[in-house]
Design goal:
2 copies of one chain form a homodimer. By secondary structure, chain A is an alpha+beta fold. The first copy, chain A, is built from 25 helices and 16 strands. In chain A, strands 4, 5, 6, 8, 9 and 12 form a 6-stranded mixed sheet that branches. In chain A, strands 1-2-3 form a 3-stranded antiparallel sheet. In chain A, strands 7-11-10 form a 3-stranded antiparallel sheet, with no helix packed on it. In chain A, a hairpin with a 4-residue loop joins strand 5 and strand 6. The N terminus of chain A is likely disordered. At the A-B interface, strand 15, helix 9, helix 10, helix 11 and helix 18 of A face strand 15, helix 9, helix 10, helix 11 and helix 18 of B.
């Protein structure tokens, strides 16, 4: 069933498009191409793979059967060869760090459980052996991990410690007499928990524990630890239990593990960043225990990068489904005397199209994140600074993309009514599966707090390096700027610039320079407001500082979210600027403007309270957003189809054209 | 494991409280009592019933097994006698309309599927026979429906028409030759869809169809229609299919039905509001087809009333679980040098306590809604006006409570991290099950649009009845008030009243009269802004009016939400005023103020753009909210325990005190 889109392009519900673009019309093939990003071929190959029905989620399975199905699916992925991509050549790979994550992202359309199970086996277990281990570990453990000869867990999180990894309580005490580490779980809260593969499949685990040697604690290290025999029975000293059924991702067998005097050879310490000599002497290439810890954990940034992309891919299939349905489904007779399609209702446009703009923003952002990640992990641009920046970028992008995806999928579910609740349309299940993406691999709130702290640090550095006069200027324009603004200076300047007219304000708001300035102020002013209270000063105790930090925690996290959105806006704008075909560029700019206005609209109160926006410009934001969404509406189907997913990815009955057929039949019967 | 709350009350994790309240301390037993509402004994009896493990959801069942379990559970409910409550005495009831819904609300803690299945059988199928039928139907069909001798469906919604019931396409054509109605499904879009009981259990259905007699359409009517034989095979002319697996509520067997020349006796028309004589003559006590339709549908308002309460009950168990956990779980070392409990983090307080305030507001509102419902349905206060007001109230309350519950449960899930995702803690599943409450029994967006339209109508009536001078005054203070305000009048008046100080603004904001004024303006000004554009006028076509309506749809729906929250605020405030014990009243007022400030904070931009709040007062809102949440924090556990749910209702491992035990063990080991 084909739908005639308003721009004249014929778009089939499958997303396949017969294009005959005139020179003065937007070319959605170009947009499609740009959305595929820097690893286009890898992505298309991954999408071709996920059309394989053998990889698809099957509804209505018992937990045990779903798990068994996903375990078997890993072999299909392995047979495709794709999962070897990021590993060195001798293990069948090409070291394509970025491409690997692109392929991983796409697995979400097959089954999020498969994605996470693959992530556990190759992205965490095997990757830890690769990145935290050295030649011995590569030679002894890596091939078996990659080739699924050894299923493994990544045993970091404990029941009592998730986001605060530095405080885990499992210990690995070196015994020079036997040249072994003895792994112990001191109490119930230190059981490893939520560990993928641990309930059933894992035969080994990379166990994170506090390394103790010669009576000294050396911080968290990772140990390659066999946990079950070939038949699946726990080895001596190892115990555990099944985490049981979950509200999503039931194809992954999460479980708990605990250790009582479990001995592993000294060589099983993954010793890239810290080693113990036979006599128990500790050594490390990184002197500071803190920096060593963050370096080790930094190798895990790929989890965050990949979840940001995966969640966004989930949002895409939800949106494409909901928009196809909204373009076909009719309800209530409107002014035309005929029942209106849902997408002609302005509220429905607001619900879906603002989120469509958000998914576009997240997509362009993800490509930049992948490029940064690739540069660091292939060594092309691997410095302390670039790693820190990458971790920061990944934290912001992961929090923003996963929350946006949950919000989008939920809105799509509701926008499809009862149909959205049926398994045959996948929306509810998609939300249930992706739900935990917001809290695993770094709880979003904790991640944003890290981003916020870095914003504070950078602000402090700018002040410190600016010299007294420069610092005074920064404070004047940002922090004290708030006071100056309260005299109406900023708002007044805007009134003059806008010429006092609504049209002038709307024109100004579509100026990218103005948008960037507004979004930047949301971050910089917030940070400048918070910073003075949190600066260590004589007479202020650590406890007082912590209390003050608490008082500003909410504002700091909101500033970090604003920073994440500013990054998205910039990535989007760069994508607009890269587009050379004018009509296509105009559509992209329109979507970018919708993105910008909805971000600003959500924060109008913040701006107005600080007089960072004049009342007339603030009014213009909502009016402009409504107008832009209306202008975006004719392109909705094209913009969603430009994601490029086919029916085999969507697998939603309501996105198959069935609704259009029903409507046509009903209309003919009248 | 008992937790010492900051106020000195000892609260066990089970919610059982050993109270020794001093005269100057808040008495949470009084709060508990008030929260139980006007049907306290019915509610407590219902809660005692839902402790029965036989009624509890069991994880990891196949859809077929879950359905069978829930079907069997209906018999347990019937054996308890409770479900007969709303029916007349000769059917074992007492006509307690309100009490029946209270008991229904509480089923959500056992299994939302059981709640909805019970709602289908007794609240829709049997209730339709009662309310739309007359003596014949009561005598022939009602007892079997109540006593589970006949499982039935409520076949209203069609694949092509959900919220727009008036447009359903199924027909029931009267054949005077045989004195039968012939029921037909004209095309695929007219299949009955999402019908509870229809996939498996239903042997009959109340089928809604366009009544046609003597060549005339008389609008939607309901027909008692047998659909399956005793063995479960479809009767001749009836067909259907299973809606299959869903993303929640899998204990309910939803399905589709279609009819081809299905004949039912003339007497099977549920003829309270419209009848057909043997010769085919149509008659009705209600002349207008439109009013007849709304009167028939009005009998179904109980679905909306009960879902509002049920969703809120779901939010309560989620919050009680998350708050107990947040009070026990520790993470990251804070200023004290010890790991902090989660609830000491201001962001965590904001996340949970603002929502706790929202659940309090929804609880008091629900009791008022139940009282109104009871008065109408027992005939104590049953007028056209009171019915319309009830429907309007139910629409607003249902939309607000179901969305708030989903938001709250999701936040609780995330606030519990990985633990929140495990089935053993129920949060994710609760969200999945309650998800559809936002779109069934009236899509929330459609319901709010109805509320918005009524606001417009009322505004028009006020203008019409005020006389020219009065109308001018109304317009001046509300619509044109916006223009007057733009000169800064309102804001300036506030600045003077607040004495220009932050403390003055905070004092003013805690004044209930000020809160009410602010919340009321959000509704009235919005309506006054929209109304002029939507007034029919010479030269404005219906199509133009419809287009204008669309332009204002978003703003109108937002105004309706504001109206729903104003109702909540008023119900909350009445509850505060009813409390005579001063320290208890102070705590309730504190929670009410948190509710008010979070509602206002969300809309700051709206107020500031219209200069309905001064900048200094707007600033004070956020500052005050932060301060109030901090003040609420010591009472969090008591306030959550005051809901009164026991471990047997929560059934969450993390709310059992297990976490406190783990923390104590870990602390002892240091």
């Amino acid at each position: 069933m084909a739908v005639e889109s308003v721009t004249g392009t014929t778009v089939t519900a499958t997303g396949a498009r017969q294009t005959s673009v005139r020179a003065d019309e937007p070319d959605f093939d170009r947009i499609h191409d740009a959305l595929l990003g820097s690893w286009k071929d890898v992505r298309l190959a991954a999408r071709a793979r996920t059309l394989d029905r053998a990889l698809h989620r099957r509804d209505g399975l018992l937990v045990a059967d779903h798990r068994a199905r996903v375990t078997a699916q890993l072999q299909v992925l392995l047979d495709s060869g794709a999962v070897r991509l990021p590993f060195p050549a001798q293990y069948g790979g090409s070291g394509d760090a970025g491409g690997n994550l692109v392929a991983f992202e796409e697995l979400v359309t097959a089954d999020p459980s498969l994605q996470i199970k693959a992530g556990v086996q190759w992205g965490l277990f095997a990757a830890a052996i690769l990145h935290l281990g050295t030649r011995y570990h590569h030679e002894h453990f890596l091939a078996d991990a990659i080739e699924l000869q050894t299923f493994g867990g990544f045993a970091m999180t404990e029941t009592g410690h998730g986001s605060d990894v530095a405080s885990i309580a499992t210990t690995a005490t070196y015994d020079p007499a036997t040249e072994e580490f003895v792994i112990d779980t001191p109490f119930r809260a230190a059981w490893k928990d939520y560990i993928g593969n641990a309930a059933v499949d894992a035969r080994a685990a990379v166990v994170f524990a506090q390394l103790v040697t010669a009576g000294q604690r050396q911080g968290v290290h990772a140990f390659y630890t066999p946990i079950r025999d070939a038949a699946g029975a726990f080895l001596a000293g190892v115990g555990g239990e099944d985490d049981g059924s979950k509200s999503g991702l039931n194809g992954v067998d999460n479980g708990r593990l605990h250790f009582t005097g479990v001995r592993v050879p000294r060589a099983n310490l993954l010793n890239r960043y810290g080693d113990v000599a036979p006599d128990g002497t500790y050594s490390s290439p990184i002197a500071s225990q803190g920096r060593r810890f963050f370096t080790m954990l930094g190798t895990l940034v790929q989890g965050r990068v990949s979840l940001a992309g995966a969640a966004n891919a989930g949002a895409k299939i939800a949106l494409q489904t909901a928009i196809v349905y909204a373009e076909e489904r009719r309800q209530f007779v409107g002014g035309s005397g005929r029942e209106e399609v849902l997408l002609d209702y302005p509220r429905h446009q607001r619900r879906l199209l603002t989120r469509l703009a958000g998914v576009y923003a997240a997509t362009y952002t993800q490509d930049e994140l992948l490029l940064d990640f690739h540069a660091v992990f292939t060594g092309a641009h691997d410095t302390d600074e670039s790693r820190q920046e990458l971790e920061n970028f990944a934290a912001a992008a992961k929090a923003e993309a996963t929350w946006h995806a949950l919000d989008t999928i939920q809105e799509c579910r509701e926008a499809c009514g009862g149909a959205g609740f049926l398994a045959e349309n996948r929306l509810g299940q998609l939300h249930a599966d992706l739900d935990v993406y917001a809290t695993f691999e770094g709880d979003n709130t904790v991640l944003l707090q890290l981003v916020g702290k870095r914003l504070l640090t950078q602000y402090g550095k700018r002040l410190a390096t600016a010299g007294p006069a420069g610092a005074a200027r920064i404070v004047a324009t940002e922090a004290v700027g708030a006071a100056a603004a309260s005299a109406g200076v900023t708002a007044l300047a805007q009134r003059i610039a806008d010429g006092g007219t609504g049209a002038g304000a709307a024109r100004a708001l579509r100026d990218p320079a103005v948008q960037e300035q507004i979004l930047l102020e949301r971050v910089e002013v917030a940070v400048a407001e918070i910073a003075p209270a949190l600066r260590p000063a004589p007479g202020v105790s650590a406890e007082q500082l912590a209390a003050r930090f608490g008082e500003h925690q909410h504002a700091l996290i909101e500033a970090a979210r604003a920073d994440a959105r500013l990054r998205q806006w910039r990535a989007f704008t760069r994508a607009v600027e890269r587009e050379t075909h004018a009509p296509t560029r105009a559509v992209l700019a329109l979507v970018r403007d919708v993105f910008a206005m909805q971000v600003i609209e959500r924060e109008l109160g913040w701006y107005l309270v600080r007089r960072r926006l004049s009342v007339s410009r603030a009014k213009a934001v909502t009016r402009l957003l409504d107008a832009l969404v209306r202008r975006m509406r004719p392109h909705a189907l094209d913009l969603a189809a430009a994601f490029g997913y086919e029916q085999g990815h969507l697998r939603a009955a309501i996105a198959s054209g069935a609704e259009a057929d029903r409507q046509a039949e009903a209309a003919a019967a009248r």
